[in-house]
UniProtKB/TrEMBL annotation:
Official protein name in the record: GG13071
UniProt-annotated stretches for the region Disordered: 177-200
Entry-linked SUPFAM superfamilies: Globin-like
InterPro entries in UniProt: Globin-like_sf, Globin/Proto, Mb-like_M
An example Gene Ontology molecular-function term: oxygen binding
Biased composition (Polar residues): 177-186
Length: 225
């Protein structure tokens, strides 16, 4: 009788620890916190390394061809009665630099803050989400055309995800920017402050965004990012 009880206790105890439950198997590539796979991240960084030495030329080619299709955008660089060529040229370079910073950024909080601040700056200059989405898509099309011999599905998917993130964040109506002020992605009732060419600051205060990221982590985490 005692032996049967002992055997029963051992059996019940062993059933708790053996056999072990097989963990859930996740099929497919593993994605990081921003939704990029390892191969997509690698392809984007390799492409950026090829773009970086020629970023001024590539930036101008993309931006000026974009303005040919959306000619009204040139009015954003008019200062009084004259066209501010310096702001126009620098914006083309800053635009592609900003894209490169997004590719290199690993912190999802800083990544979101960068896009939010970019959205806020452009919304104050009456540049909507559709225009920024078209400009980002123009850059993607240009990169895939220039590097068609070394392109890959991972690069195409990574670039598409970048454009998608631009469009998704732009569609948010109310966002808290890096300076804890409300940002409207598609419209702003206030007139633009200062010179309309303020939109050239796409990647301005990037260092400030990094410094403020630590303070914004807790607030952003509460929002569910």
């Amino acid at each position: 009788m005692m032996s049967e009880e002992i055997i029963g206790e051992k059996t019940s105890l062993s059933s708790l620890i053996y056999p072990k439950r097989i963990p859930n198997i996740k099929f497919g590539p593993i994605k990081d916190e921003m939704g990029f796979t390892l191969s997509e991240r690698l392809a984007l960084r390799q492409a950026w390394n090829l773009i970086r030495p020629f970023k001024r030329r590539y930036g101008q080619d993309v931006f000026y061809s974009f303005l040919n299709d959306y000619y009204w955008g040139i009015t954003k660089f008019v200062n009084g009665a004259e066209l501010n060529l310096k702001a126009l040229h620098s914006h083309a370079l800053r635009f592609i630099n900003f894209f490169g910073l997004l590719i290199e950024e690993k912190d999802p909080v800083v990544f979101q803050l960068m896009i939010n601040e970019n959205n806020h700056t452009h919304s104050r200059c009456k540049v909507g989400s559709v225009s920024i989405g078209h400009l980002a898509q123009a850059l993607v099309d240009y990169v895939l055309k220039v590097f068609h011999k070394v392109s890959s599905p991972s690069l195409e998917q990574g670039l598409d995800k970048l454009v998608e993130k631009f469009q998704n964040y732009q569609d948010h109506q109310s966002i808290t920017s890096a300076y804890n002020r409300p940002s409207k992605a598609n419209s702003d009732a206030r007139p633009p402050r200062g010179n309309p060419v303020e939109a050239q600051g796409m990647n301005r205060n990037y260092i400030g965004l990094r410094n403020s990221a630590a303070d914004a982590v807790s607030a952003t985490a509460i929002s569910g990012f």
